[in-house]
Structure to design on (155 residues):
């Protein structure tokens, strides 16, 4: 027989928001133009956009140029707080001479602890290109975030 489960918020009869809290989603965009002639190498990082203090990351869309003409490049996406949170790891999008769109595919972002300081969202090359690395193109991200709700404690 199936079991009906309830979150602690539903069990405690907490509304997700009330009229005074508003839960409006906000979008912010960061764009980095890869300088002509300067290809990414292993451990290169790009801080793409700032996530404001006391914000809950709800989604993102990453726009990648073709980062590698072959199949070597691997990248990750993480936060820059004192305990960085990995949002994406082992990503291979942007290989084989093709650009890509990458959407949040894990629950790591929304479950990241809300903190009292701004943090950057950082793109990092973890394995260098094995073919011809991109020397031009645009790397961009749009993040979506909201204020915390009363049951999400700020750390």
């Amino acid at each position: 027989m199936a079991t009906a489960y309830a979150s602690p918020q539903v069990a405690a009869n907490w509304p997700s928001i009330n009229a005074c809290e508003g839960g409006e989603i906000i979008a912010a965009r960061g764009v980095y133009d890869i300088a002509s002639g300067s290809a990414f190498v292993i451990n290169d990082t790009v801080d793409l956009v700032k996530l404001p203090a006391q914000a809950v990351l709800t989604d993102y869309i990453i726009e990648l140029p073709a980062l590698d003409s072959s199949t070597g490049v691997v990248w990750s996406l993480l936060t820059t707080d004192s305990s960085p949170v990995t949002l994406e790891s082992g990503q291979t999008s942007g290989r084989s001479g093709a650009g890509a769109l990458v959407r949040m595919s894990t629950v790591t972002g929304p479950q990241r602890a809300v903190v009292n300081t701004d943090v950057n969202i950082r793109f990092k090359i973890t394995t260098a290109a094995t073919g011809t690395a991109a020397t031009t193109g645009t790397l961009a991200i749009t993040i979506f975030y909201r204020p915390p709700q009363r049951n999400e404690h700020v750390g």
The beta strands are 26-34, 45-51, 56-64, 74-79, 86-91, 100-103, 119-127, 137-146. The longest strand covers residues 137-146. Residues 6 and 12 are 10 Å apart (CA to CA).
